[in-house]
């Protein structure tokens, strides 16, 4: 059974421990979540405020351990019909529908050797503006996926809204391939070296791991496995297991593979064709997997 503890947090920073300890009070977390929910329920906010609020919700929801509060936050007790969604839930789905893997990971670095003088300054300003937009989009989709990872664990209507929609399921599965921007984690010199050597940046494990959680939660109640037939999802998940450094990422990907294979002969055949069972062998024993990693 996958619990909320499997939800990922943003990449560790020196201030994370302090901020987390300041938010351990359940009353404070609940109050903040209520305020965030009220903002998300309103319409007409600009993209900057929306990105900040959604990213903040993604950070706070994993800190809430009150099941009733989480269920209520996603509107499971307030809607009359199982197909009726609250405004905040519809907003999260709209964000998912509007963002893509390309828009999340797109980078526009400036090449100093190709520009000079006023042209360099002009291109630099344009690149900075584009990078700011891409960073905002990245925070928006990361926060959205975190929220959905919690929401699908507590809301049946949200699981149906995602798992019954073929286009939405396939869009979500593409985020399993997400990678970090080299320029956000390395110096410019190393960034140039990696670009010249065609070396791929590391996996965005928090994002990919939370995507696996969303798909896991939807797999049992919906035709999600059928929607993913004919895609590269099994290959993407096996690659994620082999390239990831975090045990949580490997485990979430392995569980999702198991659910897909259990639901569909097509996925079982694809797993056999890719020799995927050899990749999953360590997960036959969680203790052994923990000792290896």
Automatic annotation (TrEMBL):
Q: Which domain of life is it from?
A: Eukaryota
Q: Which GO terms describe its cellular component?
A: centrosome; cytoplasm
InterPro entries hit by this protein = TTC12
* GO biological process, alphabetically ordered: axonemal dynein complex assembly; sperm axoneme assembly
Looking up PANTHER family in the UniProt record yields:
TETRATRICOPEPTIDE REPEAT PROTEIN 12 (PTHR46540)
Its name, as the record gives it, is: Uncharacterized protein
Q: Which organism is it from?
A: Schistosoma mattheei
